[in-house]
Specification:
It contains 10 helices and 12 strands. It is of the alpha+beta class. The strands form 2 sheets. Strands 1, 2, 3, 4, 5, 6, 8 and 12 form an 8-stranded mixed sheet that branches. Strands 9-10-7-11 form a 4-stranded antiparallel sheet, with helices on both faces. The protein binds cytidine-5'-monophosphate (C5P). Cytidine-5'-monophosphate (C5P) binds next to strand 2 and helix 5.
């Protein structure tokens, strides 16, 4: 039986998300520091007699379309078009990364589909070329192929690997609510004084130095997301979750991307477990997960 090509692909957290002015293509100029974490979606590519088909597994599967609205399907179509492939593929997405959670789950699936389909169709495409193709699908698609830590400029797609020392123990709080990325950026524009928005934003050197030296306390202090205020004003419950984690003694807390997932940095595995129990007992999140970072990018799972 054809068990297919299986790829495991990580979610990301933004340790910094600095927002600049809106560009002529309506996107905001960004400077962000990504870290890939040990929360994964698995993508399987196997034979299909009916073109490109897709199936999603997991608790949030009902929230995801399986047609052209699915970025993994678009990734497979892009490869078909560029390489003149006529054979179909069946994609199975085993979803664990929260849907619309600010952790680039849809982009991770597209990255996984690129890698899985390239091998399934026996296309020998180097990862850096897959990353370039990924950038055509969305700004967050290249990073899950790279993994580790990286600075992203432009819309976040122009990546430079960042040195990072140590193991980061994160507690993730998934929200029951939903935030729309365009709405968060719109609110950011409404509430931010234009003169305080830089044309070209930058990730602070202090944060990069703290990352290199593995100074987790300092990293915790320097976590910064320019979209926080906008996300919190649209979803005030985020204030409560952030406060609860800070009061329970995390090193730092940050909304990932445009939210609503919140990531709490802790000093050790046991501190993460303690914080997870505290947050769970308060019942303020849909789900609590303990993850570590940085982890490698998308990779094959061999049977
Ligand atoms: O990246 P994605 O296409 O999901 O972004 C959705 C919307 O969020 C964009 O159409 C835009 O309104 C807003 N956005 C932005 N600047 C970015 C990323 C997203 O204004 N860098």
């Amino acid at each position: 039986m054809d068990s297919g090509i299986r790829v495991r692909v990580p979610a990301k957290i933004n340790l910094a998300l600095m927002v600049g002015r809106q560009r002529s293509d309506q996107y905001h100029e960004l400077a962000t520091l990504f870290q890939a974490v040990s929360l994964y979606d698995d993508i399987t590519a196997s034979s299909s007699s009916d073109g490109i088909t897709c199936e999603v597994l997991g608790a949030e599967a009902h929230k995801i379309g399986v047609g052209d609205d699915n970025l993994a399907v678009r990734a497979a179509k892009l490869l078909q078009e560029i390489y003149g492939i006529t054979e179909g593929v069946h994609l199975v997405i085993d979803k664990r990364i929260p849907v619309a959670g600010g952790m680039a789950g849809g982009s991770a699936d597209a990255a996984g589909a690129l890698l899985a389909c390239a091998r399934f169709w026996e296309l020998r495409i180097p990862v850096n070329e897959l990353m370039e193709l990924g950038a055509q699908l969305g700004a967050d698609v290249p990073f899950p192929l790279m993994g580790g830590c990286a600075v992203g400029l432009g819309r976040g797609e122009s990546l430079t690997p960042a040195l990072c020392r140590g193991v980061f123990h994160w507690v993730l709080a998934f929200s029951t609510s939903h935030l729309s990325t365009p709405e968060v950026f719109r609110r950011f524009d409404e509430i931010t004084a234009p003169h305080s928005i830089p044309a070209i934003p930058q990730v602070s050197q202090e944060l990069m130095m703290a990352l290199i030296s593995g100074d987790l306390d300092r990293v915790g202090e320097l976590l910064l997301n320019d979209l926080s205020q906008a996300s919190c004003s649209l979803l005030p419950e985020l204030h409560t979750t952030l406060r609860a984690g800070r009061e329970a003694g995390c090193l730092g807390a940050i909304i990932s991307g445009s939210g609503p997932t919140i990531a709490f940095l802790t000093k050790s595995e046991s501190a993460a477990a303690d914080l997870g129990v505290t947050l769970s007992s308060l019942g303020i999140a849909r789900d609590i997960r303990l993850v570590t970072g940085p982890v490698g990018g998308a990779h094959f799972l061999e049977d």
